[in-house]
């Protein structure tokens, strides 16, 4: 993911029909060679495309907005807020920080390594973006204010999650991807989530599998938190809880992993469930939990005292 101030300035002009190197050069008061480099960067990132055109004066190539989902979202964002200079919001480290906190609450300490920026820079930028109302902050954490800045959130979501992999993207940041497949031949990287539960005493028969790419050795905590992305109903919630209890995972370590993978809110609901004595409970981010039904599942896997 890469956007610089010149790239954003040029992109905005392309939206308004500045479609050639010469036109962009004149408008931005830069050399044609400099503009060509900026246009090449935009094309490489999938924001613009070049089309053959014989109607343009002295040019056979017309620069247009690409049809990638994130390019179209950025176009809509710039048209909706035409008086805002997004080169001051979406360039460089600001873009990295915003994409790292666009889905769920994160501490700056957690967001900083994911975004690849220093802790000091992340703290400075988070304050700046919070003052503009772009970031919401609470309890030492922050996230993109998706209600006030809905179009910005949609752009960040599409840009961050875009991939040409043959699979359903469940989580992505940069080259690190967790995706779902329905055929073994689509596997890339290593299996994770529910498909790895059998390695730790919880055997599951599933028609779909979760993959982590690029290939690396995953810890129990990684596999556990990745499976949080697969919870769709009460049954999968019970399996998730059974894995946690059977393998006696440390809460704190799992919570930090959940925050990294944008599942902090769901994991906090899971902790509410763990601490509750109620026979039935429904939280905001997880399916309904019925303790009697869970006891039946737990017995199947040798999980006691539940």
Notes on the protein architecture:
This protein is 45% helix and 14% strand. The protein is of the alpha+beta class and 306 residues long. It folds into 3 domains: 62 residues, Winged helix-like DNA-binding domain superfamily/Winged helix DNA-binding domain (Arc Repressor Mutant, subunit A, Orthogonal Bundle); 74 residues, Winged helix-like DNA-binding domain superfamily/Winged helix DNA-binding domain (Arc Repressor Mutant, subunit A), CATH 1.10.10.10; 133 residues, no CATH class. The strands form 4 sheets. It has a 4-stranded antiparallel sheet. A hairpin with a 2-residue loop joins strand 6 and strand 7. Helix 6 packs across helix 7. The protein starts with a helix and ends in a 6-residue tail after the last helix.
Write the layout of secondary structure elements.
Layout: H1 5-15, H2 21-28, H3 32-44, E1 48-52, E2 61-65, H4 69-80, H5 92-100, E3 106-107, H6 108-115, H7 119-131, E4 135-138, E5 141-144, H8 150-161, E6 168-173, E7 176-181, E8 190-192, E9 209-213, H9 220-227, H10 234-246, H11 251-260, H12 264-275, E10 280-281, E11 289-290, H13 291-300
Antiparallel strand pairs: 1-2, 3-5, 4-5, 6-7, 7-9, 8-9, 10-11
């Amino acid at each position: 993911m890469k956007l610089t101030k010149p790239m954003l300035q040029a992109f905005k002009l392309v939206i308004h029909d500045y479609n050639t190197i010469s036109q962009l050069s004149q408008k931005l008061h830069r050399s044609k060679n400099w503009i060509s480099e900026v246009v090449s960067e935009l094309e490489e990132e999938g924001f613009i495309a070049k089309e053959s055109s014989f109607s343009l004066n002295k040019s056979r190539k017309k620069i247009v907005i690409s049809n990638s989902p994130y390019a179209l979202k950025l176009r809509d964002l710039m048209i909706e807020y035409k008086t805002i200079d997004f080169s001051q919001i979406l360039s460089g480290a600001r873009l990295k920080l915003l994409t790292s906190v666009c889905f769920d609450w994160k501490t700056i300490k957690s967001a900083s390594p994911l975004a690849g920026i220093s802790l000091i820079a992340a703290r400075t930028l988070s304050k700046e973006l919070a003052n503009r109302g772009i970031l919401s902050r609470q309890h030492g954490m922050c996230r993109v204010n998706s209600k006030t800045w809905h179009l910005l959130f949609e752009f960040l979501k599409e840009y961050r999650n875009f991939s040409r992999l043959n699979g359903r993207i469940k989580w992505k940041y940069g080259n690190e991807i967790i995706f779902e497949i329905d055929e073994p031949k689509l596997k890339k990287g290593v299996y994770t989530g529910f498909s790895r539960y059998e390695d730790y005493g919880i055997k599951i028969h599933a028609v779909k599998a979760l993959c982590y790419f690029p290939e690396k050795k995953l810890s129990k905590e990684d596999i556990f938190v990745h499976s949080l992305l697969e919870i769709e109903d009460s049954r999968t919630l019970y399996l998730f809880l059974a894995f946690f209890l059977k393998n006696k995972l440390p809460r704190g370590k799992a919570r930090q992993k959940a925050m990294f993978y944008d599942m902090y809110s769901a994991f906090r609901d899971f902790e509410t469930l763990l601490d509750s004595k109620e026979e039935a409970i429904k939280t905001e981010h997880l399916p309904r939990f019925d303790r009697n039904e869970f006891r039946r599942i737990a017995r199947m896997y040798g999980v006691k005292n539940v």
